[in-house]
Amino acid sequence: MQYIAKIKSHDERVVTGEIEKLVEKEGASRTQSFSVSGVSFKYNNYQTAPYFFANRKYNDKVIFDGGYVEIHYIQDNGKNYITKLFIRND
Fold this sequence. Notes:
Oligomer: single chain
Structural class: mainly beta
Radius of gyration: 13 Å
């Protein structure tokens, strides 16, 4: 519930820029990490709560190095949780 309260209170941050330093690790689940304009993101398609972006449709190649995005996120305990993701398609 603390996450919902943060979103409703507009305690979201926004970053725009190119995806950099994309790292994917696959085992029993898939973990991806990357940064945008110096802000780091890391998530797991199994462990990340369903109301946050975790690239569960990774075969669609939405996240890739050099892709330009606008990310809305909240911070909690040193982690950045993606609440909205906009991708620029040129």
